[in-house]
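lol ok so funny story. i was supposed to be doing the assay writeup but got distracted and ended up predicting the structure for this chain instead. priorities right. anyway since i did it might as well share w the group, maybe its usefull for someone
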Amino acid sequence: MGPMVLRTLLAVLSLALAAPPAPAGPDAARELRRLSSTHAAERESAQRWLAVHLAPADLRAVADAARDGDAETRRRLVHALSGADRHFELIVALCDDTGEPARALGHDALTALARAWLPGLDEAPVSAEDVAHAFADRSADVFSVPARHTTLRERIESIAVESDLGLPIVMTPELLEFDRPELRPALRGTALEILAATVREEGLSFGGVGARDEEDGPALLVVARRGRARHESGFDRLEEWCLAVRRDGADAERAALALASSGWPGALAWMEARAVPAGGEPVPGAALEGVLAAARRGLVAPSLSRPEARRALLALAAARLDSDDPAERRRGAGTAQALAELGPRGPRGEDCASLLLQGWDPHDDDEEHWMRCVVLEGWRSVDDELARRAIAVAQDPARAPGVRLQALRAVAAVNARGAVLDDAGVRRLWTHCAAQGGEEELLGLLGAVAGAPTEALHDAAAGFGDARYAAFLARWSLRARDREAWNAAWASAATDGFDDARRFAAWEGAARDARRLLGEGAGRAWLDGALAGAAGDASVQRFAAHAGLATSDEMREWARAFAARESLTDAEWIAFGHLAAGPSSSTVRDRLAEGVEAAGPGRAPALATACDAAAEALRGARRDQELRRLSRAVWKAVRDAGHPLHERLGPGRYPGRVELAPIPLGYRLRRPPF
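and the output, tada:
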């Protein structure tokens, strides 16, 4: 389905929605007249009937009743309309009427619906400062978002969906109009801190609207232009967005996205009825974009699960990803992610796996393969043929690394195995993932679907010249329980030493894997060979102490040997600091304080690192009293204001605060890798 077809369908829908409504049926007209009866019982009976039977076709008659009736008639109409979300279409149509009585009736009914959904929506918004105060006493996890080329909406959605904030976050339509992918900075903190930093970086503001039933604080957050979020109620924005979706103009799609992110059930059901007519296929347009956006946040419209709707959406996603327009391609990726949320079965329990197989050709472009693998990952279908198709994509050397990575995700999601990857393929995948901080995910995927790395892969890694890649293959072998391959890789790495910081970090991860998966004894056994060949290598000793693989006797011997030396190199000072939690910790503590006190500008950075390593080791061993003694000794050593480490290691600055390992955000977002 190309762009021309989409525009044609949209035009047909617009004409259909713009057609004048049919006149009210005789029953509705009769009950509307009964609202003006002189008998209270008849007026009450008419209100109850209208609450159940009014339909969008009754628009003109309801508008006339609002114009000609008295205050009680209008009040009863408001109660009749606001009693159920199924009157949403009629209410919004009244808000869009040219007559003031009808507009007022629609406004009051929509206000009542909104209040029933979330109380306080028509009140002044809560400032960002008050929102922060409301969240101050809640325990919050620490999150991180990497520096990434992304849109503001994608970043906001990752905070809303993947963090512990627990609130919908709504971006106003005017912000979405010019939202383009940009390189946005890395951030770290609580979810609210990351949101505040993101908004501040963009020159925007946010406010809270609505009220929770059982706890203080707003019910949702609205991100808007600076100052606007502080002065408009949540309801003012909701009515404006509903009218924009109904009019289906230039800003209709952005309004639909804002409505969808609010999570208003009535609005979502209304957009679903407009986007997916009963028994029909989805109709491209603003309402459909809103329904798809809600599905990506886990609010799946039931009508999307029908096989006919799935088939049409698969074709729509493929057509969009095939477009040359970047915005249309982003819509295609969003459509695929919405499809992935539907699950493998239709509303009657029918298996929809065959829909993914239809038209899936091995010679398709990367876009088609990526889209189907995204959907398969979400559906987790047990169909064997789907698993074989995904494995074929993962093994295809002609495919882009991002496409092959997505295929691996799909294979792992359906619990299949048997993917065979050559050296070039694994290396390209590793390079792709390492650049985006996704090495851990790749390790898990390869261990799940590809077995252990072959001897040929290890041999090729030795000639590649990047120790991080060799460590990656070693960790893969370990997770696949290939001890022989792991042992050889480990011995080679330990013989070469760990002076390089990146090499140290890569192999430290490997050592921690060994201790966690196979026990401390196994990790220790592998280190023995390295220590025998490099007994005086400070980098190996530092590594052994930091990774928890050195024995007490070894740590005692190393500590005494270092303490007896008149001078130490930078590497030896850092290794010495890692021994602070060993059996000769008092020796380390005293010698370290002496070294700090005598440190000149050239040696100061290494000694600061050594002190940090000592603090980390003592904290990890929960030896708080010894850490306090070390801190006091270091403070005393740098007490002179002219000391090069006076500011770095003085009271209140050393030891530094323990930073919790952050939870990454954005891991659920599937971006097209092309």
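The mean pLDDT is 86. The beta strands are 143-145, 148-150, 169-171, 182-184, 187-189, 204-209, 220-225, 663-664.
back to the writeup now i swear
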